[in-house]
Write a structure and sequence with these properties.
Length: 990
């Protein structure tokens, strides 16, 4: 099925971001002095964002690029249109994402071009000459898990067309920081850092390569600066961050990591000699993570450091006070101070980026940046369902897939009592209970969180790492599984646990080759340290469970854990992490495995498949591009062999059981896909930098075949449509710039395929009696959006357009009958949604039941059944909804008759302006003023308003009409019928 996705066949299927809208780890930040209010930030796996309003709103400007992992941003001081972006986080820590080199824009981020340094993987800093936008230095940290040559400090003098490595130690030492003297661009400071992540979690290596260097000839030659600074032999010298005082460039600060902690040093002679200026260990705490020091552009005594807290000194670094921070630690990475307006400061942290314009008295928000780093995704059984998971740096979140107020806002998500790295497992029988982490139970109703771990106190035979599996059995909703180095099971919510496996990890191994020169050191000494990292209970056989470890083993049990059999594929070497296991949905002997080899310094994707219970495994990675490890693989529960895969950059789909993969990125930015699930008819993913995303209604992917793709026209079977109120907000709308995510489509989703251009396409909705409920045509004229009365056009939902162009199209019927009834005073609800507010009234709501969708295209008429159900939260009987529809249809018909009669009367009055009878028939649409006792006689204009008010009253609720409403409707209907009859008679006499 290689041809299925050619020519963007599925381009109208769109991923929908749902949040949570709160910032994630953001390491790159820069402002633009020439353009006050303009700033750029780079999230470590969320791409590049820009603001022009001091951080009130942020817009992604890098989403069409092949990577979202960002470590550095630099705006050329002499040309604000020139921006350089370095990809890769530029850190040494678990769970990171690497990049693919350096990018450049010459039009302020509108377009980008890749320049080079592709194998550097991590770029933590870029410095651009203050006078020449084409001269820059790039600190390249290199591979986090292995040696490589493309690392150190690189220089370009032609805007990145070519790079020359000008400072290099060895293949184990990378560039960590670089700063150009703004007063004398020939002077450059740089730091090198020798550090490596081990193949096992929480393991790291270091060596003597770290140091601080200075060049006075533009980077051609370098001198190491060491006088007064720690060294590796005695102090365990590590990462160094550099800060230059722009108003006194002989003053240089350095945050210095040592084995005793991080400390701040100062030089007043251009780096020739150094003094530890401050003994407060908090000022440069965790200097290997943050390493940031900045000096006020106009006052060399004002110094800021980024650490767990941002600290500020006014005495040249001797003493500090807290400038910005919070309990638990916001963990700050970057500080940018406006050289023209030093009270304007941009700070990037693990929580996102914020701006102050008043020297820190107040700040913008980081709850407007959709850069959350999620680890895993699960869905509960509530309606609307919620996606839940742990978020790096911020705890956890359960986010509703649909907001009650027309969009998903801050009202629709909440932390879920799970630690930041954890799985979240909502109870299948009670969605208000969420288990997660290592391990807790959280009750949404009370907020109570209780630790229910199998081992409340750690012991030698119990090992865990950051992320451990927590999931309910797909065949028994009472059974919850958890894994440490063994597999655990509870059937009473964690009060009692049963160990159902031995230690499934490697007892011994040979160091992987990428350990390299550190082989034989104490840090590389083999010891049993692995954990069970992936669990997959079978959805078919309750006794079959697959288990994979982060040190490269796979086991399976077919008797509920009494016995386990190792079925490790021969391809798995020690410390090839089994990231995700997926048990087959149609065959208990089938399983799939996503293997993460990043920690072996190997970035190719690896997916494995077995159909014989693990006796043999086949690699199924064809079509997945190199350079992006595979993080997750899942099988669709309904179509055997329909697989979905998440890699370090994107989502992929296979229609042939993994033999061939094709991209399913669509409109999603490039970001690390850490997990994905099929929830009912939707595909949901957890990204490690852009939050949760949903691909609504994957029925076309389930149904498509090569033969369907070649048909002249095809109508896909629509999934069950839910009659759900789009917007139940009774308040004024949130401001248009308030962060929000889109709701699911408002109605029945209908997918169809047209192969040949030309010719009219029609779509009809037909009720069980054969009556046409709604009809659309590709020939329908669509008026452009314009301001409507006092409603600005940017609030208005565009009218639906049925396409007749070649390709697959997605159309939404809003579950309303016919066209809107003719009212004199139509309008838009006060609870509006930007760009998605339909004009009211619409046709009457269709009642739940069976319908048919009829497509006519390319000379063919195709029909599919459509089932409409009521919102599952609504308990109104079907008969009551039928009564509502019948009365609403009568009111709608009366509105049309009234409007038609009124139109004729108004035309007649133009010919007979003094005709009192016509004047009385028309009446006044102006409502009575408060206290006015004017008797209102039946007339067409005011009675149109009465009909409209009653129609709106009936349509505004999923309930039977109240007796008083029904009585009022009958009265007005009778009066309107009499009015229409009188009008006809009066007009007949003219």
């Amino acid at each position: 099925m290689i041809a299925i996705l050619l020519l963007s066949l599925f381009s109208e299927l769109q991923w929908r971001p749902i949040g949570p809208i709160r910032g994630g780890r953001t390491k790159a930040a820069s402002g633009v002095p020439q353009r006050p209010g303009t700033f750029y930030i780079g999230a470590v796996d969320g791409g590049v964002f820009a603001t022009s309003d001091y951080g009130r709103t942020w817009t992604p400007i890098f989403d069409d690029q092949p990577t979202g992992s960002i470590g550095a941003i630099a705006v050329a001081p002499s040309n604000p249109d020139v921006i350089y972006v370095g990809s890769g986080e530029g850190l040494q820590r678990p769970d990171l994402s690497v990049g693919d080199g350096i990018y450049k824009s010459v039009d302020a981020g509108k377009t980008w071009r890749h320049l080079g340094l592709r194998d550097g993987q991590q770029i933590p800093q870029i410095a651009v000459d203050s006078r020449d936008p084409s001269r820059l230095f790039v600190a390249v940290l290199g591979h986090p898990y292995g040696p490589n040559e493309e690392r150190g400090i690189f220089r370009s003098t032609d805007g990145g067309e070519t790079f020359q490595r000008v400072l290099y130690k060895d293949a184990d030492t990378g560039g960590a920081d670089v700063v150009i003297d703004p007063a004398n661009p020939a002077v450059v400071y740089a730091s090198l850092w020798e550090a490596r992540q081990a193949p096992w979690e929480n393991g790291e290596f270091s060596g003597p390569g770290s140091g601080l260097f200075k060049s006075t000839d533009g980077g051609t030659t370098w001198k190491q600066l060491a006088k007064g600074l720690p060294d590796h032999e005695h102090d365990g010298l590590g990462r160094i961050g550099i800060g230059l005082a722009p108003s006194r460039t002989s003053r240089v600060f350095a945050t210095v990591q040592t084995k005793k902690g991080g400390f701040l040093y100062r030089s007043d002679d251009g780096g020739e000699s150094w003094t530890r200026i401050c003994d407060d260990a908090r000022v440069a705490e965790r200097a290997d993570d943050f390493a940031e020091v900045k000096v006020d552009p106009q006052d060399p005594d004002v110094v800021l450091t980024a650490s767990v807290v941002v600290w500020r000194s006014t005495d040249g670094g001797k003493t500090f006070v807290a400038f910005r921070g919070a309990p638990g630690g916001d963990d700050y990475h970057r500080i940018w101070i406006d050289p023209v307006r030093p009270s304007t400061i941009l700070i990037a942290s693990d929580q996102g980026a914020i701006v102050t314009v008043n020297g820190g008295a107040s700040w913008s928000s980081w709850y407007n940046q959709p850069t959350a780093q999620m680890f895993h995704v699960t869905a509960d059984n509530a309606f609307p369902y919620r996606l839940c998971g742990g978020q790096q740096e911020s705890g956890s979140a359960c986010v509703s897939s649909r907001g009650a107020d027309g969009a998903i806002t801050f009202r629709d998500w909440h932390p879920a009592g799970v630690e930041e790295y954890g799985y979240a497992a909502p109870d299948p029988l009670d969605p208000d209970l969420v288990y997660g982490g290592k391990i807790t139970r959280w009750d949404r109703r009370t907020g109570d969180q209780q630790e229910v771990s199998p081992a409340p106190v750690r012991r030698p035979d119990y090992r865990v790492v950051r992320t451990q599996p927590v999931l309910f059995s797909p065949t028994d909703p009472h059974t919850l599984y958890f894994a440490s180095n063994v597999v655990w099971k509870t059937v009473d919510g964690g009060r009692r646990w049963t160990k159902i496996s031995p230690d499934l990890t490697r007892a011994k191994w040979d160091d992987p080759p990428n350990v390299g020169k550190y082989r034989g050191t104490d840090d590389a000494k083999p010891s049993q340290r692995g954990v069970v990292y992936a669990l997959a209970p079978s959805p078919i056989d309750p006794k079959t469970i697959w288990a994979g470890t982060d040190d490269g083993l796979i086991h399976v049990t077919h008797d509920g854990g009494k016995t386990w059999r190792e079925v490790t594929p021969r391809q798995l070497v020690p410390w090839a992490k089994v990231s995700i296991l997926e048990a087959g949905h149609s065959d208990a002997r089938t399983a799939y495995a996503a293997i993460d080899t990043m920690r072996l310094d190997e970035m190719r994707p690896h997916l494995l498949r077995t159909h014989d219970g693990g006796k043999t495994w086949k690699e199924i990675s064809d079509g997945l591009p190199p350079g992006g490890i595979a993080r997750v693989v899942r099988e669709d529960p309904r179509r055997p062999g329909l697989l979905f895969c998440g890699t370090e950059q994107s989502v992929y789909v296979s229609f042939d059981d993994g033999d061939q993969w094709q991209p399913l990125r669509l409109n999603m930015p490039s970001t690390s896909i850490r997990d994905l699930i099929v929830k009912d008819d939707d595909l949901a993913v957890a990204t490690h930098g852009r939050g949760f995303w949903i691909l609504d209604d994957i029925e076309p992917l389930r149904e498509i075949t090569d033969s369907i793709a070649s048909e002249e026209a095809h109508l896909f079977r629509p999934r069950t449509a839910l009659r759900v109120r789009w917007n139940t907000n009774t308040d004024t709308p949130l401001p248009p710039d308030e962060p929000a995510s889109p709701n699911p489509p408002d109605g029945a989703v209908i997918d169809y395929l047209v192969k040949t251009p030309g010719g009219e396409v029609t779509l009809e909705i037909v009720d069980p009696a054969g009556k046409i409920v709604r009809k659309y045509s590709s020939a329908d004229k669509i008026e452009p959006l314009r301001d409507d009365g006092n409603v600005p056009r940017w609030w208005i939902r565009p009218p639906p357009k049925l396409s007749g162009e070649p390709g697959l199209h997605r159309f939404v019927w809003d579950l309303h009958w016919g066209n809107a009834p003719h009212v004199l005073e139509g309008g838009y609800p006060i609870a509006a949604i930007p760009g998605n507010t339909p004009k009211e009234p619409r046709g009457p709501w269709a009642v739940p039941g069976k319908y048919a969708v009829r497509l006519t295209a390319a000379g063919k008429t195709l029909t599919q059944p459509l089932l409409v159900k009521i919102d599952p939260r609504v308990k109104t009987p079907a008969a009551a909804l039928a009564q509502q529809l019948a009365l609403s249809q009568r009111l709608a018909a009366a509105l049309d008759e009234d409007f038609d009669a009124l139109t004729k009367v108004r035309e007649a009055r133009k010919q007979h302006p003094d005709d009192k009878r016509l004047e009385e028939l028309e009446g006044s649409a102006e409502p009575r003023r408060p206290g006015e006792k004017r008797e209102e006689k039946p007339a067409l204009a005011p009675w149109n308003g009465r009909l409209a008010a009653l129609y709106d009253l009936l349509q505004s609720s999923d309930a039977a009409p109240t007796p008083q409403a029904a009585a009022a409707a009958e009265k007005v209907l009778a009066e309107t019928a009499a009015l229409v009859k009188s009008t006809a008679a009066a007009l007949h006499l003219r």
